[in-house]
Task: inverse folding
């Protein structure tokens, strides 16, 4: 039995990225629909011999130069490391490249690039279980590199087979044998970056397909005959740039980056062309890696994507007062690097299949478990903030603890049940305030007693209270009067009144200088110190107050390395420290939220706050929900504040389509009270204006989409421009129409303009 339900009107600097070339799921033959596949299987060239085989794949290698071909036994599709035939009339210099290598010299102020036409390495190939190992001796650069190419096959939690090629660069396999004892040495070369398999699965000009980039939620870029000159390539660092190496403030101080609207949120890319697709997943070294995408016309006539690993970073190093020089690090960043190429066939050879491949990885390797509890609605309450002027500070209370309890009662009385409340700006001095000092809770809001009464009162109404906290930053603006606002004094004064020491407790950049906001006052805290000194200090008080969890503000937004002498940390160690903090909060309090969507948070948090709602990079043609397909059913994701929507009709429909949960951020006082504060973005928030629409939306989402909350997405298609279909695991189909005119489903059902339709199949589902 089929029922149609609903049809309502819904009210780069230094950045590098990951590119995934993909193709959409089967459907009507429109802009991004897959066509039938009937490939003519070409014979494997005679100079290639088979070295490995699984149930789904075969691996053939040319032992003279290590070029290889992966044969998909399911479809006959061949995936080659390099073009078997020249891409154009004139063979490009990089067509035989198995990797692209950039190096620096003894002065560490410049880089050189390996070109395979004139500097082709000497290659030694030897068999290993499941594939082969290739050792490349780059004589000109006095360097040896070992790469291992293996076929693997796993079984996903739902039982389907996942075949893939795994390429590993062992750290022990890198040998830099040039003499660097003198700055004048001409044989001193050190690795800076290595781009793996830049031509694997490259699509020729004239082939149909697209690339997918994991910018924000994800985007695809269609293959085109020609591209504008400004479209050179897409290259961005996974999880955004490293604040410890890429951002510098006045006086040589390192500076934290401003948060970009979108950035690579996942270590995933892929290529889709003709009858097949692959998803590339960086499985080791993702925190020091870029994802690249190249379109035909850039260097050569091929559409392609790749992963590029960073081995040495560049930083601005002080030479003398006010004089800085760019230097490349002396020491190599350690660790193995690894990429998994998941080969997709049939109806899965599209961007949805790529997203599902990453979901399989999260569940199989990262051991992420599906969400099993019902989703509770989330309400944000902004409590207060300190307004700074030249010589004074004024606290601006927008919602006291008593008023917050009244708001909660209003929502309960309106029929919203079993929800969570998230308090922002509750601590001493409110938002930012005296962090990392939290307690006592701000006295003008009701102090500790008022906070305790609020939490106890909410619990009696079936409502949990979650506290926003910040263990990433230390704030001094409003924390010690005039001393906190004068950088010279701040750097000398131990800052005990602030709760941290800006000299010893903060993140240090590659240049060994503290990382802070350019104007001062906002410092990045060393994560180990933040965990040991502040989190463990606060957890007992959080628990005694009755808090049901804590929001680790912005830890999923950016990640940096740290050269702090006491606790030096890599980007990966920083992220892992943060996630251990989330684990600790879940252990003690029962829950944790992480603001920001970076993929390392998946499985370590109950909710993702501020999940991506688009991809805005100019490189992309169409935003697609790769992130959300991969994470639906694994974590609850919240979109932007519902009361701050710029385009309510479109944003509400995208919320439905991508499986996002709404969150309203409200205040008791009018939002005009926030003028001339650091939170003036909250321009419409008074509960009197938003109580009715907020309660209606919360109830509507639970009643209409509640049965889909924890279900995984099995397919996503663009049926026509602005008309999309989502398929869930139980067979339910959701149609979303972003056009003012109505559209019809393949079954002939009409979906009104700016509306949606749910097609539920099967009795009782």
Result:
């Amino acid at each position: 039995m089929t029922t149609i339900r609903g049809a309502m009107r819904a009210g780069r600097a230094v950045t590098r990225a990951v590119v995934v070339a993909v193709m959409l799921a089967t459907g009507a033959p429109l802009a991004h629909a897959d066509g039938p596949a009937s490939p003519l299987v070409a014979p494997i060239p005679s100079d290639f011999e088979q070295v490995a085989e699984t149930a789904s794949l075969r691996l053939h290698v040319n032992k003279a130069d290590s070029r290889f071909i992966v044969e998909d036994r399911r479809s006959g599709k061949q995936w080659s490391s390099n073009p078997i035939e020249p891409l154009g009339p004139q063979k490009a210099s990089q067509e035989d490249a198995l990797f692209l290598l950039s190096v620096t010299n003894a002065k560490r102020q410049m880089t050189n690039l390996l070109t395979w036409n004139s500097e082709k390495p000497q290659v030694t190939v030897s068999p290993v279980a499941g594939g082969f190992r290739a050792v490349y001796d780059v004589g000109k650069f006095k360097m040896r590199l070992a790469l291992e190419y293996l076929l693997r096959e796993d079984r996903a939690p739902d039982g389907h087979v996942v075949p893939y090629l795994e390429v590993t660069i062992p750290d022990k396999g890198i040998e830099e044998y040039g003499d660097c004892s003198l700055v004048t040495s001409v044989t001193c070369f050190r690795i800076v970056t290595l781009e793996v398999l830049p031509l694997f699965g490259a699509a020729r000009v004239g082939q149909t397909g697209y690339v997918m980039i994991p910018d924000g939620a994800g985007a695809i870029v269609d293959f085109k005959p020609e591209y504008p000159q400004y479209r050179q390539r897409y290259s961005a660092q996974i999880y955004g740039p490293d604040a410890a190496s890429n951002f510098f403030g006045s006086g040589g101080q390192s500076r934290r980056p401003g948060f970009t609207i979108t950035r690579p949120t996942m270590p995933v890319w892929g290529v889709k062309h003709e009858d097949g697709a692959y998803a590339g997943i960086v499985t080791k070294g993702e925190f020091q890696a870029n994802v690249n995408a190249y379109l035909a016309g850039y260097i050569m006539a091929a559409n392609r994507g790749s992963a590029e690993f960073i081995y040495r970073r560049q930083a601005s190093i002080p030479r003398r007062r006010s004089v800085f020089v760019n230097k490349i690090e002396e020491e190599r960043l350690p660790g193995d690097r690894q990429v998994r190429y998941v080969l997709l066939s049939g109806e899965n050879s599209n961007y949805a299949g790529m997203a599902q491949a990453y979901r399989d990885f999260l569940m199989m390797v990262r051991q992420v478990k599906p969400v099993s509890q019902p989703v509770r609605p989330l309400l944000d309450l902004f409590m207060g903030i300190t307004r700074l002027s030249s010589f004074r500070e004024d606290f601006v209370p927008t919602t006291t603890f008593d008023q917050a309890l009244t708001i909660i009662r209003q929502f309960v009385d309106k029929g919203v049940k079993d929800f969570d409340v998230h308090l922002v700006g509750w601590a001493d001095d409110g938002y930012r305030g005296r962090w990392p000092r939290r307690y006592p809770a701000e006295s003008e809001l009701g102090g500790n007693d008022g906070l305790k009464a609020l939490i106890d009162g909410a619990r009696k109404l079936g409502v949990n209270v979650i506290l926003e906290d910040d263990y990433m930053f230390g704030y001094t603006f409003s924390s010690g009067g005039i001393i906190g606002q004068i950088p010279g004094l701040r750097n000398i004064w131990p800052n005990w009144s602030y709760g941290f020491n800006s000299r010893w407790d903060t993140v240090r950049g590659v240049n060994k200088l503290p990382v802070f906001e350019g104007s001062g006052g906002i410092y990045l805290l060393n994560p180990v110190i933040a965990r040991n000194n502040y989190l463990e200090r606060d957890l007992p008080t959080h628990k005694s107050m009755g808090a049901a969890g804590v929001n680790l503000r912005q830890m999923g937004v950016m990640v940096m390395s740290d050269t702090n002498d006491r606790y030096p940390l890599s980007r990966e160690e920083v992220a892992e420290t943060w996630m251990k903090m989330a684990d600790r909060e879940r252990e003690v309090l029962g829950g944790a939220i992480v603001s920001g969507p970076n993929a390392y948070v998946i499985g370590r948090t109950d909710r993702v706050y501020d999940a991506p709602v688009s991809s805005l990079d100019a490189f992309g043609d169409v935003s697609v929900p790769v992130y959300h397909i991969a994470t639906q059913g694994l974590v609850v994701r919240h979109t932007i504040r519902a009361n701050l929507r710029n385009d309510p009709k479109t944003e509400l429909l995208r919320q439905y389509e991508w499986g996002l949960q709404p969150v309203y951020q409200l205040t008791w006082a009018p939002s005009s009270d926030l003028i001339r504060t650091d939170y003036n973005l909250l321009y419409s928030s008074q509960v009197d204006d938003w109580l009715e629409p907020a309660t209606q939306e919360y109830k509507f989402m639970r009643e209409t989409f509640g049965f889909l909350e924890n279900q995984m997405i099995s397919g996503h298609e663009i049926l026509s421009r602005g008309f999309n279909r989502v398929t869930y695991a139980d067979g339910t189909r959701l149609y979303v129409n972003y056009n003012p005119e109505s559209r019809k489903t393949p079954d002939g059902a009409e979906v009104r303009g700016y509306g949606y339709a749910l097609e539920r199949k099967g009795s009782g589902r």
